Protein backbone atom coordinates (compact mmCIF):
# COMPACT_ATOMS: atom_id res chain seq x y z
CA UNK A 1 0.00 0.00 0.00
CA UNK A 2 1.74 3.13 -1.27
CA UNK A 3 1.28 6.81 -0.44
CA UNK A 4 0.18 9.62 -2.82
CA UNK A 5 3.30 11.76 -2.28
CA UNK A 6 5.86 13.00 -4.82
CA UNK A 7 9.20 13.39 -3.06
CA UNK A 8 8.81 10.68 -0.44
CA UNK A 9 7.35 7.20 -0.68
CA UNK A 10 5.56 5.59 2.24
CA UNK A 11 4.87 1.88 1.82
CA UNK A 12 2.76 0.26 4.53
CA UNK A 13 2.85 -3.55 4.71
CA UNK A 14 1.46 -6.39 6.80
CA UNK A 15 -2.02 -6.86 8.23
CA UNK A 16 -3.83 -6.64 11.54
CA UNK A 17 -3.18 -10.30 12.46
CA UNK A 18 0.00 -10.89 10.44
CA UNK A 19 3.26 -11.60 12.26
CA UNK A 20 4.24 -7.97 11.81
CA UNK A 21 3.22 -4.65 10.32
CA UNK A 22 5.64 -2.05 9.10
CA UNK A 23 6.68 0.84 6.90
CA UNK A 24 9.27 1.46 4.22
CA UNK A 25 9.98 5.19 4.05
CA UNK A 26 12.00 6.45 1.08
CA UNK A 27 13.16 9.98 0.28
CA UNK A 28 14.33 11.25 3.67
CA UNK A 29 17.72 12.93 3.08
CA UNK A 30 20.87 11.76 4.77
CA UNK A 31 21.89 13.42 8.04
CA UNK A 32 18.47 14.03 9.61
CA UNK A 33 18.44 13.40 13.36
CA UNK A 34 15.73 11.05 14.59
CA UNK A 35 14.90 10.63 18.27
CA UNK A 36 13.64 7.04 18.16
CA UNK A 37 12.24 7.37 21.70
CA UNK A 38 10.13 10.32 20.56
CA UNK A 39 8.88 8.30 17.58
CA UNK A 40 7.99 5.45 19.96
CA UNK A 41 6.11 7.86 22.24
CA UNK A 42 4.12 9.14 19.26
CA UNK A 43 3.23 5.60 18.16
CA UNK A 44 2.24 4.82 21.77
CA UNK A 45 -0.24 7.72 21.72
CA UNK A 46 -2.52 5.68 19.42
CA UNK A 47 -2.27 2.43 21.40
CA UNK A 48 -5.20 0.67 22.99
CA UNK A 49 -5.71 1.59 26.63
CA UNK A 50 -7.94 0.80 29.60
CA UNK A 51 -10.27 3.65 28.70
CA UNK A 52 -13.93 3.04 27.89
CA UNK A 53 -13.53 3.90 24.20
CA UNK A 54 -10.65 1.51 23.53
CA UNK A 55 -10.45 -2.09 22.32
CA UNK A 56 -9.37 -4.69 24.92
CA UNK A 57 -6.71 -5.88 22.46
CA UNK A 58 -3.39 -4.79 23.96
CA UNK A 59 -0.26 -4.68 21.79
CA UNK A 60 3.18 -3.48 22.99
CA UNK A 61 3.75 -1.76 19.61
CA UNK A 62 7.52 -1.73 20.03
CA UNK A 63 9.07 0.08 17.06
CA UNK A 64 12.00 -1.87 15.59
CA UNK A 65 14.20 0.15 13.21
CA UNK A 66 15.84 -2.29 10.80
CA UNK A 67 17.58 0.07 8.40
CA UNK A 68 17.92 3.67 7.28
CA UNK A 69 18.70 5.14 10.71
CA UNK A 70 22.09 4.62 12.34
CA UNK A 71 22.84 5.99 15.80
CA UNK A 72 19.82 8.28 15.55
CA UNK A 73 20.72 9.76 12.15
CA UNK A 74 19.28 8.94 8.72
CA UNK A 75 21.78 7.47 6.26
CA UNK A 76 19.89 8.47 3.10
CA UNK A 77 18.71 4.94 2.35
CA UNK A 78 15.25 3.46 2.70
CA UNK A 79 14.04 3.48 6.31
CA UNK A 80 12.55 0.14 7.29
CA UNK A 81 10.69 -0.17 10.58
CA UNK A 82 8.41 -2.91 11.90
CA UNK A 83 6.07 -3.66 14.80
CA UNK A 84 5.49 -7.27 15.84
CA UNK A 85 1.87 -8.32 16.40
CA UNK A 86 1.59 -10.14 19.71
CA UNK A 87 -2.12 -10.39 20.54
CA UNK A 88 -3.82 -11.87 17.49
CA UNK A 89 -7.04 -13.83 17.97
CA UNK A 90 -8.02 -14.76 14.43
CA UNK A 91 -10.71 -17.26 15.41
CA UNK A 92 -12.99 -14.31 16.19
CA UNK A 93 -13.26 -13.54 12.47
CA UNK A 94 -13.85 -16.93 10.80
CA UNK A 95 -17.66 -16.52 10.46
CA UNK A 96 -17.40 -13.37 8.35
CA UNK A 97 -16.12 -15.06 5.20
CA UNK A 98 -19.69 -16.18 4.60
CA UNK A 99 -21.55 -13.39 6.41
CA UNK A 100 -19.67 -10.09 5.87
CA UNK A 101 -19.95 -7.45 8.58
CA UNK A 102 -21.97 -4.34 7.64
CA UNK A 103 -19.84 -1.24 6.90
CA UNK A 104 -16.62 -3.28 7.14
CA UNK A 105 -14.39 -4.09 4.16
CA UNK A 106 -15.24 -7.84 4.37
CA UNK A 107 -17.51 -8.00 1.33
CA UNK A 108 -15.38 -5.89 -1.01
CA UNK A 109 -12.22 -7.70 0.13
CA UNK A 110 -13.81 -11.09 -0.65
CA UNK A 111 -14.86 -9.89 -4.12
CA UNK A 112 -11.52 -8.24 -4.88
CA UNK A 113 -9.06 -10.65 -3.24
CA UNK A 114 -11.17 -13.84 -3.45
CA UNK A 115 -9.57 -16.72 -1.52
CA UNK A 116 -6.68 -14.45 -0.50
CA UNK A 117 -8.96 -12.09 1.39
CA UNK A 118 -7.68 -11.53 4.92
CA UNK A 119 -10.56 -10.62 7.22
CA UNK A 120 -8.77 -11.26 10.51
CA UNK A 121 -8.97 -8.10 12.56
CA UNK A 122 -9.87 -6.25 9.38
CA UNK A 123 -6.68 -7.38 7.60
CA UNK A 124 -4.98 -4.63 5.62
CA UNK A 125 -8.06 -2.41 6.06
CA UNK A 126 -7.72 -2.32 9.84
CA UNK A 127 -7.14 0.78 11.93
CA UNK A 128 -4.13 -1.13 13.26
CA UNK A 129 -2.36 -0.20 10.03
CA UNK A 130 -2.14 3.39 11.28
CA UNK A 131 0.62 2.28 13.68
CA UNK A 132 3.29 2.09 10.94
CA UNK A 133 1.90 5.31 9.45
CA UNK A 134 2.64 6.89 12.83
CA UNK A 135 6.24 5.65 12.63
CA UNK A 136 6.73 7.53 9.35
CA UNK A 137 4.78 10.51 10.66
CA UNK A 138 6.80 10.63 13.87
CA UNK A 139 10.03 10.82 11.89
CA UNK A 140 8.94 13.72 9.69
CA UNK A 141 7.28 15.57 12.61
CA UNK A 142 10.74 15.90 14.17
CA UNK A 143 12.19 17.28 10.92
CA UNK A 144 9.33 19.75 10.51
CA UNK A 145 9.76 20.99 14.08
CA UNK A 146 13.42 21.76 13.40
CA UNK A 147 12.17 23.85 10.50
CA UNK A 148 9.79 25.87 12.66
CA UNK A 149 6.63 23.93 11.79
CA UNK A 150 4.53 22.44 14.60
CA UNK A 151 1.45 20.26 14.26
CA UNK A 152 -1.23 19.77 16.90
CA UNK A 153 -4.29 17.52 16.79
CA UNK A 154 -7.20 16.82 19.12
CA UNK A 155 -10.80 15.56 19.22
CA UNK A 156 -13.40 18.26 18.57
CA UNK A 157 -16.61 16.20 18.67
CA UNK A 158 -17.89 12.78 19.73
CA UNK A 159 -21.43 11.62 19.03
CA UNK A 160 -22.74 15.17 18.71
CA UNK A 161 -21.03 16.32 21.92
CA UNK A 162 -18.87 19.23 20.84
CA UNK A 163 -15.58 20.37 22.32
CA UNK A 164 -13.59 23.46 21.45
CA UNK A 165 -12.86 23.93 17.75
CA UNK A 166 -10.55 26.19 15.80
CA UNK A 167 -13.76 27.65 14.34
CA UNK A 168 -14.67 28.96 17.81
CA UNK A 169 -11.47 30.89 18.51
CA UNK A 170 -7.72 30.79 17.90
CA UNK A 171 -6.07 27.72 19.43
CA UNK A 172 -2.39 27.71 20.33
CA UNK A 173 0.02 24.81 20.20
CA UNK A 174 0.63 25.25 23.94
CA UNK A 175 -3.07 24.66 24.64
CA UNK A 176 -3.02 21.42 22.65
CA UNK A 177 0.14 20.21 24.40
CA UNK A 178 -1.34 21.08 27.81
CA UNK A 179 -4.51 19.11 27.06
CA UNK A 180 -2.57 16.01 26.05
CA UNK A 181 -0.32 16.31 29.12
CA UNK A 182 -3.48 16.24 31.23
CA UNK A 183 -4.66 13.12 29.36
CA UNK A 184 -7.50 15.00 27.69
CA UNK A 185 -8.09 14.01 24.08
CA UNK A 186 -10.23 17.15 23.58
CA UNK A 187 -9.66 20.80 24.47
CA UNK A 188 -12.96 20.96 26.36
CA UNK A 189 -15.96 18.77 27.23
CA UNK A 190 -13.88 15.58 27.45
CA UNK A 191 -16.01 14.31 30.33
CA UNK A 192 -19.26 14.71 28.41
CA UNK A 193 -17.71 12.96 25.41
CA UNK A 194 -16.66 10.02 27.58
CA UNK A 195 -20.18 9.82 29.01
CA UNK A 196 -21.55 9.62 25.47
CA UNK A 197 -19.13 6.81 24.61
CA UNK A 198 -20.10 4.93 27.80
CA UNK A 199 -23.78 5.30 26.94
CA UNK A 200 -23.25 3.73 23.51
CA UNK A 201 -20.87 1.04 24.77
CA UNK A 202 -23.34 -0.10 27.45
CA UNK A 203 -25.85 -1.06 24.76
CA UNK A 204 -23.23 -2.69 22.53
CA UNK A 205 -23.12 0.23 20.13
CA UNK A 206 -20.35 2.57 18.91
CA UNK A 207 -20.08 6.27 18.15
CA UNK A 208 -18.23 8.49 15.67
CA UNK A 209 -16.87 12.00 15.86
CA UNK A 210 -14.44 14.59 14.55
CA UNK A 211 -10.76 15.31 14.99
CA UNK A 212 -9.02 18.57 14.10
CA UNK A 213 -5.42 19.25 13.16
CA UNK A 214 -3.58 22.59 13.04
CA UNK A 215 -0.26 23.25 11.30
CA UNK A 216 1.63 26.24 12.70
CA UNK A 217 4.53 28.02 11.01
CA UNK A 218 3.86 26.96 7.43
CA UNK A 219 5.30 29.67 5.12
CA UNK A 220 3.42 31.33 2.27
CA UNK A 221 3.65 29.55 -1.09
CA UNK A 222 3.54 25.84 -0.26
CA UNK A 223 1.34 23.85 -2.65
CA UNK A 224 -0.11 24.56 -6.08
CA UNK A 225 -3.36 24.61 -8.04
CA UNK A 226 -5.87 21.88 -8.85
CA UNK A 227 -4.59 18.31 -8.32
CA UNK A 228 -1.35 19.65 -6.86
CA UNK A 229 -3.14 21.73 -4.24
CA UNK A 230 -2.23 21.38 -0.58
CA UNK A 231 -5.83 20.44 0.23
CA UNK A 232 -5.71 17.65 -2.37
CA UNK A 233 -2.47 16.21 -1.00
CA UNK A 234 -3.50 16.38 2.65
CA UNK A 235 -6.96 14.93 1.96
CA UNK A 236 -5.50 11.96 0.07
CA UNK A 237 -3.18 11.28 3.00
CA UNK A 238 -5.79 11.66 5.76
CA UNK A 239 -8.16 9.23 4.01
CA UNK A 240 -5.54 6.56 4.72
CA UNK A 241 -6.98 6.49 8.25
CA UNK A 242 -9.64 3.78 7.73
CA UNK A 243 -12.56 5.36 9.64
CA UNK A 244 -12.27 8.79 7.99
CA UNK A 245 -15.28 9.60 5.78
CA UNK A 246 -14.94 13.38 5.29
CA UNK A 247 -12.16 15.99 5.31
CA UNK A 248 -12.73 19.74 5.62
CA UNK A 249 -10.44 22.76 5.70
CA UNK A 250 -11.16 25.88 7.72
CA UNK A 251 -14.87 26.56 7.89
CA UNK A 252 -15.40 23.56 5.59
CA UNK A 253 -19.07 22.60 5.24
CA UNK A 254 -19.96 25.82 7.03
CA UNK A 255 -19.34 27.70 3.78
CA UNK A 256 -22.48 26.20 2.22
CA UNK A 257 -24.89 28.41 4.16
CA UNK A 258 -22.77 31.56 4.22
CA UNK A 259 -22.48 34.76 2.20
CA UNK A 260 -19.11 35.85 0.89
CA UNK A 261 -19.38 39.12 2.77
CA UNK A 262 -19.44 37.14 6.02
CA UNK A 263 -16.74 34.53 5.41
CA UNK A 264 -14.15 36.11 3.09
CA UNK A 265 -10.81 36.42 4.91
CA UNK A 266 -9.90 40.12 4.73
CA UNK A 267 -6.19 40.94 4.53
CA UNK A 268 -4.39 43.05 7.11
CA UNK A 269 -0.85 43.93 8.21
CA UNK A 270 0.48 42.67 11.55
CA UNK A 271 4.09 43.41 12.53
CA UNK A 272 4.85 44.30 8.90
CA UNK A 273 3.54 40.92 7.70
CA UNK A 274 0.48 40.16 5.58
CA UNK A 275 -2.14 38.28 7.60
CA UNK A 276 -5.87 37.66 7.35
CA UNK A 277 -8.35 38.98 9.91
CA UNK A 278 -10.19 35.64 9.95
CA UNK A 279 -9.02 32.19 8.88
CA UNK A 280 -12.14 30.65 7.40
CA UNK A 281 -10.16 29.21 4.48
CA UNK A 282 -7.91 27.27 6.83
CA UNK A 283 -4.65 28.89 5.76
CA UNK A 284 -4.99 27.87 2.11
CA UNK A 285 -5.99 29.90 -0.97
CA UNK A 286 -6.01 28.30 -4.40
CA UNK A 287 -4.34 25.17 -3.04
CA UNK A 288 -1.39 27.23 -1.72
CA UNK A 289 -0.56 28.10 1.90
CA UNK A 290 -1.12 31.78 2.76
CA UNK A 291 0.92 31.95 5.98
CA UNK A 292 -1.97 31.53 8.41
CA UNK A 293 -2.31 28.36 10.49
CA UNK A 294 -3.48 25.45 8.32
CA UNK A 295 -6.64 23.99 9.84
CA UNK A 296 -8.14 20.66 8.81
CA UNK A 297 -10.97 18.58 10.25
CA UNK A 298 -11.68 14.88 9.72
CA UNK A 299 -14.99 13.16 10.37
CA UNK A 300 -14.75 9.54 11.49
CA UNK A 301 -17.57 7.03 11.33
CA UNK A 302 -18.60 4.87 14.31
CA UNK A 303 -16.65 1.62 14.59
CA UNK A 304 -18.70 -0.87 12.47
CA UNK A 305 -18.11 -3.71 14.94
CA UNK A 306 -21.05 -3.60 17.35
CA UNK A 307 -22.74 -6.38 19.30
CA UNK A 308 -26.24 -5.23 18.34
CA UNK A 309 -27.83 -7.62 15.76
CA UNK A 310 -27.31 -6.44 12.17
CA UNK A 311 -28.60 -7.60 8.82
CA UNK A 312 -26.24 -9.17 6.31
CA UNK A 313 -26.25 -11.83 3.57
CA UNK A 314 -24.92 -15.40 3.58
CA UNK A 315 -22.71 -15.37 0.49
CA UNK A 316 -23.02 -19.12 0.02
CA UNK A 317 -26.82 -19.43 0.21
CA UNK A 318 -27.53 -15.85 -0.96
CA UNK A 319 -30.08 -15.61 1.84
CA UNK A 320 -30.47 -12.61 4.12
CA UNK A 321 -29.48 -13.31 7.72
CA UNK A 322 -28.56 -11.59 10.98
CA UNK A 323 -25.23 -11.50 12.82
CA UNK A 324 -23.99 -10.28 16.17
CA UNK A 325 -20.32 -9.29 16.05
CA UNK A 326 -18.07 -10.71 18.74
CA UNK A 327 -14.46 -9.89 19.50
CA UNK A 328 -12.44 -6.92 20.77
CA UNK A 329 -13.41 -3.54 19.36
CA UNK A 330 -13.26 0.21 20.05
CA UNK A 331 -16.51 1.82 21.19
CA UNK A 332 -15.13 5.04 19.67
CA UNK A 333 -12.10 5.13 17.40
CA UNK A 334 -11.78 8.94 17.37
CA UNK A 335 -9.38 9.44 20.33
CA UNK A 336 -6.98 6.81 18.96
CA UNK A 337 -7.26 8.15 15.40
CA UNK A 338 -5.84 11.57 16.36
CA UNK A 339 -2.22 10.36 16.08
CA UNK A 340 -2.85 8.78 12.67
CA UNK A 341 -4.46 11.95 11.33
CA UNK A 342 -1.60 14.07 12.65
CA UNK A 343 0.91 11.68 11.05
CA UNK A 344 -0.83 11.84 7.66
CA UNK A 345 -0.99 15.65 7.71
CA UNK A 346 2.69 15.79 8.68
CA UNK A 347 3.72 13.48 5.83
CA UNK A 348 1.76 15.53 3.26
CA UNK A 349 3.20 18.83 4.55
CA UNK A 350 6.74 17.43 4.66
CA UNK A 351 6.44 16.15 1.08
CA UNK A 352 5.17 19.54 -0.11
CA UNK A 353 7.96 21.38 1.74
CA UNK A 354 10.56 19.04 0.28
CA UNK A 355 9.17 19.64 -3.20
CA UNK A 356 9.52 23.41 -2.72
CA UNK A 357 13.09 23.06 -1.34
CA UNK A 358 11.97 24.89 1.79
CA UNK A 359 13.56 22.54 4.34
CA UNK A 360 16.94 23.29 5.89
What does this structure look like?
By secondary structure, the protein is of the alpha+beta class. The protein is 25% helix and 22% strand. It has eight helices and 17 strands. A five-stranded antiparallel β-sheet has the order 8-7-9-15-10. Strands 1-2-6-3 form a four-stranded antiparallel β-sheet, covered by helices on one side. It has a two-stranded antiparallel ribbon with strand order 4-5. A hairpin with a 4-residue loop joins β16 and β17. The longest helix has 22 residues. The chain is globular. The mean pLDDT is 92.
β-strand percent reads 15-25%
Q: How far is it from the N-terminal to the C-terminal residue, by CA?
A: 29 Å
Computed over alpha carbons, the radius of gyration is: 21 Å
The residue ranges in which pLDDT falls below 50 over 5 or more consecutive positions are: none
The structure class reads alpha+beta
Mean pLDDT: 92
| Overall body shape | globular
N-to-C SSE series?
EEHEEEEHHEEHHEHEHEEEEEEEH
Helix content: 25-40%
What's the arrangement of strands in the largest beta sheet? 8-7-9-15-10
Quaternary state of the chains: single chain
Largest sheet: 5 strands, antiparallel
DSSP strand tally: 17
- The helix count comes to 8
Amino acid sequence: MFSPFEKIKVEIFGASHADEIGVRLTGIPRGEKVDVKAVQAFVDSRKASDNVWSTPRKEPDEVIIKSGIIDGVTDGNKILAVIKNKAQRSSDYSPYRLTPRPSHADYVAIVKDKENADLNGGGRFSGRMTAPICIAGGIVIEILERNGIEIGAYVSEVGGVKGRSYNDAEITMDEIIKAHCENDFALSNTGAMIDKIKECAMRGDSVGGKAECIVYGLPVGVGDALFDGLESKISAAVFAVPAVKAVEFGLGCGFSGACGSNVNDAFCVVDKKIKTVTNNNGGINGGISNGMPLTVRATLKPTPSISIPQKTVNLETMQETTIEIKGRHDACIVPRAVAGIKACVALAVYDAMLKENLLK
